[in-house]
Specification:
mainly alpha, 2 helices
């Protein structure tokens, strides 16, 4: 049985998730810039792992927004 969440709460949650999503996208751009400016392979691997984790966070937030906030 699904729990009913009122529209006000859904809208509030969606607004907050959109804010978090925007922050992750900005962070992704910054990480990409740092990755492109980094020469040492060990450091590049670190930026790549960080970028992968950030992309995973974007997927989690986006998926939740679609499923739970009707967006």
């Amino acid at each position: 049985m699904a729990v009913r969440i009122d529209r006000v709460q859904k809208n509030l949650m969606r607004t907050r998730l959109e804010d978090v999503l925007a922050a992750h996208k900005d962070l992704g751009e910054k990480i990409d810039t740092y990755l492109n400016d980094t020469e040492h392979e060990e450091y590049r691997q670190f930026w790549e792992r960080l970028a992968g984790g950030n992309q995973e966070n974007i997927k989690v937030v986006s998926g939740f927004m679609v499923r739970k906030c009707n967006r």
